[in-house]
Automatic annotation (TrEMBL):
It comes from Prosthecobacter fusiformis. GO terms for molecular function: hydrolase activity. This is Glyoxylase-like metal-dependent hydrolase (Beta-lactamase superfamily II). It comes from the Bacteria. PANTHER family: METALLO BETA-LACTAMASE SUPERFAMILY LIPOPROTEIN, METALLO-BETA-LACTAMASE DOMAIN-CONTAINING.
Length: 317
C-alpha cells in the first residue's frame, strides 16, 4: 500500500521533466518502502543520450527500471551512471547497472567498494540486522572495468552535456555532487527536504559527518549561484540560495546542540531523545503533519543522525 504525503504539489506522483536548453531532466520516484517522494533518481536526456544520476538501493531496482520505461526509455539505453556516494540509498543498485554494461562514475574513494561491496554489506547488516534485505536488497559487485573514479572538477560528456564532479565532503568523505550547466545534483550535501517543505533535515549519518567540511561544501555550492538543485531526498528546487543558506545554519545547529548536550553529561539515549524532540518541534512548526514526520524518520532517522553528530563531537572536543 502506498502512503500519501501531506505536502505541497511538488510531491505529485507523476513528475514532468525539467527542461534546460540542451537537456531534459526526468525525476524518477523509487517508491522506497512502497512510499512515494522519499528517494529520487534522475535520468538526464541530451541529444538522444541518457545518463542516470543515483541508482537507489537494490530493493527499489524494480521500481527504478519501471520508472525508466514509463519515462519512455529502454533500460539498456542507459550507458552512463553517476553515483554521489556509496551509501545504500544512493548506490545500492550501482553494481547491477555495471553488470548490464553501463559505466559507473563515482568518487575515487568509493570505487573499490562498488567493485567489492562486502565491507559495506557487512557493516549495514550489523546495523539493520533482520531488516537489511527488506530495506536495502542486494548490492551486487560491479566489474572493475565498469567503474570509473572521477577527481574533483573532472568531467564526462554525455550527448552535448558535460557532467562535472565536485568533491563535496561533510556528509561522507567520498561524496561528489554532479554539475551540469547551472544545475547541481546534490546527493546528500544539500540535505533532505521532502515535499518542498521549509523544514530541512540534516543528513548526519555516522561515521563521517564532519560539520566544517560540510559547511565548506555548502559554501562551494552557494558560490556557484546555481539556478536549480536536484536533491536525492527529494526532487528539484529553485529557491537555491535560501535553501543552502538555511541548510548551512542547520548543520551548525545540530553540531552545537549535540555538543551542548554532551557537555551537560547526557547519555547516548538521552541525546537521541533530545535530538528527536528538537527536530520534531522544528518540523511541526514548519507544518509537517504526524504522518509527514514519520516519513522523515523513515528516510533520515533522528536516532541515526544523533549518533553521527555525537561521534564527530567526541572525536573533536
Amino acid at each position: 500500500m502506498e502512503t500519501s504525503l501531506e505536502f505541497p504539489p511538488l510531491m505529485a506522483f507523476s513528475l514532468p521533466p525539467d527542461f534546460f536548453p540542451s537537456m531534459r531532466v526526468h525525476t524518477l520516484d523509487l517508491k522506497f518502502q512502497n512510499t512515494p517522494g522519499l528517494i529520487a533518481a534522475y535520468v538526464v536526456e541530451s541529444e538522444g543520450s541518457l545518463a542516470l544520476i543515483e541508482t537507489g538501493p537494490g530493493s527499489t531496482l524494480p521500481a527504478l527500471r519501471q520508472a525508466v520505461m514509463e519515462a519512455g526509455f529502454a533500460v539498456n539505453d542507459i550507458r552512463h551512471v553517476f553515483v554521489t556516494h556509496i551509501h545504500l540509498d544512493h548506490a545500492g543498485a550501482a553494481g547491477w547497472w555495471a553488470q548490464q554494461g553501463a559505466q559507473v562514475f563515482c568518487h575515487p574513494s568509493a570505487a573499490r567498494h562498488l567493485v567489492d561491496p562486502s565491507r559495506l554489506i557487512d557493516s549495514a547488516r550489523r546495523v539493520y540486522a533482520d531488516e537489511m534485505d527488506t530495506l536495502w536488497g542486494d548490492m551486487l559487485p560491479a566489474p572493475e572495468e565498469r567503474v570509473t573514479p572521477l577527481m574533483d572538477a573532472e568531467s564526462v560528456t554525455v550527448g552535448s552535456m558535460k557532467f562535472t564532479a565536485w568533491d563535496t565532503p561533510g556528509h561522507a568523505r567520498h561524496h561528489h555532487a554532479f554539475i551540469i550547466e547551472d544545475a547541481c545534483f546534490t546527493g546528500d550535501v544539500a540535505g533532505l527536504r521532502l515535499g518542498n517543505s521549509p523544514y530541512l533535515s540534516v543528513t548526519a549519518a555516522p561515521p563521517q559527518f564532519d560539520p566544517p567540511a560540510y559547511i565548506g561544501s555548502v559554501d562551494r555550492l552557494l558560490s556557484a549561484d546555481f539556478k536549480r538543485l536536484f536533491l536525492t531526498h527529494f526532487g528539484g528546487i529553485t529557491d537555491v540560495r535560501s535553501h543552502l543558506t538555511r541548510y548551512r545554519q542547520r548543520i551548525e545547529e545540530v553540531n552545537q546542540n549535540v555538543r551542548q548536550w554532551l557537555a551537560e553529561g547526557l547519555t547516548t539515549e538521552a541525546i537521541q531523545q533530545r535530538y528527536e524532540e528538537t527536530e520534531h518541534a522544528l518540523a511541526t512548526a514548519a507544518g509537517i503533519s504526524p504522518a509527514g514526520w514519520d516519513l522523515h524518520q523513515m528516510t533520515n532517522s533522528t536516532r541515526m543522525c544523533a549518533d553521527g553528530v555525537k561521534l564527530y563531537v567526541e572525536k573533536n572536543p
